[in-house]
Amino acid sequence: MVLAQEPDLSMFGDDPFWLIALKAVGCFAFLMGTVLISIVMERKVLGWMQLRIGPNRHGPWGMLQSLADGVKLMLKEDITVKGADKALYILAPMLAAIPAFMAVAVIPFGPKDDPVSIFGTETVLQLTDLPVALLYVLATSAIAVYGTVLAGWSSGSTYPLLGGVRATAQIISYEVAMGLSFAAVFLYSGSMSTSAIVDAQDDRWFMILLPVSFLIYMVAMVGEAHRPPFDMPESEGDLVGGYLTEYSSIKFAFFMLSEYIHTVTVSMLMVTLFLGGWRAPAPLSFWEGANSGWWPLLWFVGKLIAVIFVFFWIRASLPRVRYDQFMVLGWKILIPIALVWLMLVATVRAMQNEDYEFGDILLWVAGGVLVVLLLSYVVDFFLDRENERREQEEAARPEPAFDPMAGGYPVPPLPGQTLPPVPRRPSRAERTTASVAAESGASTEGSTEGSTEGREGNDA
């Protein structure tokens, strides 16, 4: 087996200008329509999963709820913070929203070798494609972070700044894991073109061939889109509203729009990279005409809705994690696993290019896995012994007395520390006895002083 050759992209760029403009408007309308449906769908799904009534006032069955939200936001008072950097304050929502629209340009909605007819002109169900299309997608998603950062910084407030810093760290962390999951797809498909990647899934979807990359991307895309349980940049529990705190009206709507568009975009990427793209699912794929004409668009939309549903399912099921836990998951778990998995995929592909038999590849991979497990066992064994030695030394070391007022403020004891004994409070009977004794002592002292003064007077 050899690596795939450079994909043939000659069918792109030959459309007339009016058709290119029509396809661009169609992609924009598809994104906006999907966002409107997603907002209503999220509220309906969450209401159904949490056993409560969802939106049911605006339109039949509440289907116009997202439209009502948009009208409400546009009619609200548009406030500009007095201490904000006004130019960047206004530019930030645009930088967040515009790059989110750009990624859809390279998403294939149908096969490139089976064009459809639009007003009598044969064309492909894809706006354009590039030999490095996925790098283009990563670049657009990286530009979108500037909108979040500038929103937090230009507001001139503490909580938006913290939310912007959180969003920056979050996107950088999970861009690395996402890029490594993409790299495994590059190695297996032999191309960075989105249409070529879908063509490479003719026999089996990459969700089956690359399950680790699929799971890593699933976690990374939730973090990239700032969706619960990874919505720490706008965590209302500790940051009021995060980088959105000082925004209102249409500027706030732009940020919400960019978040939902980003959700749709990463879902489109999952469908394209791991779920066969526009290809029909297994039972329907046996029909010869399933992947021709306009049918692939239907299969793509069905898979897209299923992936978006997973976003809402996760939100209804999982609580928000702590920020430090989120960073540990990205840097200490996802990225090392993605690196090891990428090395494994590269090794398998190299052996396939050298015409190794499948059994030999399996034996080599199994041997490598056993060696790694053995090394990890040895490392864990010595680490456990070192930890036991440290615990014994700490147990033998005398524990210093705990002073709750050492820092000037009373603090609770940490695990393993104990508070000094508190003086026992006297009982009511003891307090009564003490008060009676004090009163009798005072009266005795008074009578003694009176008799002394009387004697002195008599003597005089």
Automatic annotation (TrEMBL):
Span list, region Disordered: 390-460
This protein's record includes keyword Translocase: yes
Keywords noted in UniProt: Cell membrane, Membrane, NAD, Oxidoreductase, Quinone, Translocase, Transmembrane, Transmembrane helix, Ubiquinone
MF-aspect GO terms: NADH dehydrogenase (quinone) (non-electrogenic) activity
Membrane topology: Multi-pass membrane protein
InterPro entries referenced in this protein's UniProt entry, alphabetically: NADH_UbQ_OxRdtase_su1/FPO, NADH_UbQ_OxRdtase_su1_CS
NCBIfam families on file: PRK06076.1-2, PRK06076.1-4
Protein name (Swiss-Prot/TrEMBL): NADH-quinone oxidoreductase subunit H
